[in-house]
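hi support,

uploading two proteins for the ticket. first:
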Amino acid sequence: MNWKDIVEVLRANKLRYTILIGIAVILTSILIFMAFTGKKAQPDSLSNLTSLSSTRTIASSNLTETSAKSDKITVDLKGAVKSPGVYKVSSEARVTDLVQAAGGLTTEADQKAINLAAKLTDGQVVYVASKGENAPAAATAASASDTSSSDASITTDKVNINTADVTQLQTLSGIGAKKAQDIIDYRTQNGLFKSVTDLTKVSGFGEKTLERLKDSITVD
């Protein structure tokens, strides 16, 4: 093969070589571009992961804080305690916990007039009566919506001795479980009380007891 033949062959294959070279250039450009964008995207991905982790941490913190707040209630303590005032206590707290937080009862406190085992509610007013004081209950609810509660320490009205149960009757000053049951037994056997003075017909209830309770009870 002489030089003329070689030149002819090269000319014939020129287009093929040109196409191959072009494809090689394109492939090389694609690989370079992918390598460059891949390195750049990696820090962004890490940044996104870090941001997501931070968001989850903040959300978890907010949830914990909200949960902690929901476990607290506010109660107003008044009467014969060493440090009356408004207290924030656990939603599971009882009257005894509130009294302890206030430093305990004073020497004038009528311990028979308060149910230390009663559970507290948010916004409640707890009143500790003094000895000889006509107080219908140890604790009084702050809102009318709580008046239907059967809690021994919650009432905003006089106790109806015709309808009250044992627990409600025990909110009366000096009335324990036995006397409360005596009232219920009497009205069951003899009918409803026609007036508060009929309470003296119950065994163990004299004029002195009636005098102490008359402002706290009703038959209506």
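and the second one:
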Amino acid sequence: MTKLIRILLFPFSLLYGLVMALRNVLFNVGLLKSEQFDVPLLSIGNITVGGTGKTPHTEYVISLLKDDYKMAVLSRGYGRKTKGFVEVTEPSTPEQCGDEPCQMKRKFPQQLVVVDEDRRNGIKTLLDCYKPEVILMDDAYQHRWVKAGFSVLLVDYTRPLFQDFVMPTGNLREFPLGKKRADLIVVTKCPEGISDADKALFRRKLRLAIGQELYFSAFNYGELVPVFFEERDKDLDLIGAEVLLLSGIANPKPLENYLKNEGAKITGVSFVDHHQFSEKDIAKVMEAYELLSEERRCIITTEKDAVRLKAGLNIPAEMKERLYYVPIKVQILEREEDFNQQIKDYVAKN
């Protein structure tokens, strides 16, 4: 959407923001009822549409709690073609459960992951059938029909709330004032070597509520992993390599910057977030790949896109042989123990 169109849509943004603000007021005063449950409910979400790093941060919390508690992860399963409550299994496809729940299940095979667009029904089914000690709700910040006991709000460093506006003029789901509902806020995707001055600027402009904690996080990129084979090409070196970056996520720029810093020459083929790849898309990718130098070339994608690419598509053998994804992990940049302990303390006390 061009900048001019976004500006012209400002009246609709203002109306939308006011409707969301009224909705929040009705929940705050109790005219709309948030349901509470006798189980620790952790929520991880955002106000910005797409691309704040929800899945890696959810995986961080899974790693933090999974060995100490019987935990369930509840997602709505964005983009799936099924309805209602579905348990995610390792063979599940993105069409059945959504790409992010499938990714989490494959990374943590022993972890209970379920999807349900009705979060209340999902929680009730979990408590009746699985009896978890903790429920982690993915992308549930605006889902106020359920009262989360502890909310983590993610704010993208490259798209801060204080420089944005509500949709469709901007990328916010509600006015930035909604950040006050969070127990802690994490500024995600911070650049390497972020300065104390930048952190202080974020702290000042976010205007934290009393009792809110602010943390900063970054992505740590791991070694390339083959999408279709057990072992990677031992001769694969990114320095000077021609890389076709295949992405269907909201913001591939951080990954692109990482690959460039590793010495790769990047050609991008991008699709919208959560894009369901088709045979036509694969042909487009191969056409772009064939234009690269034959000597040292490969295709690199994201972990989330890799889940969708493996879901029954007819992938040419050459693409399978040269297709890799980059795993990412979240690093809390300072006071990591405080961050971990704040979450652990909430669960232990409840």
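thanks. also noticed: The chain has two domains: 3-219+331-349, 225-326.
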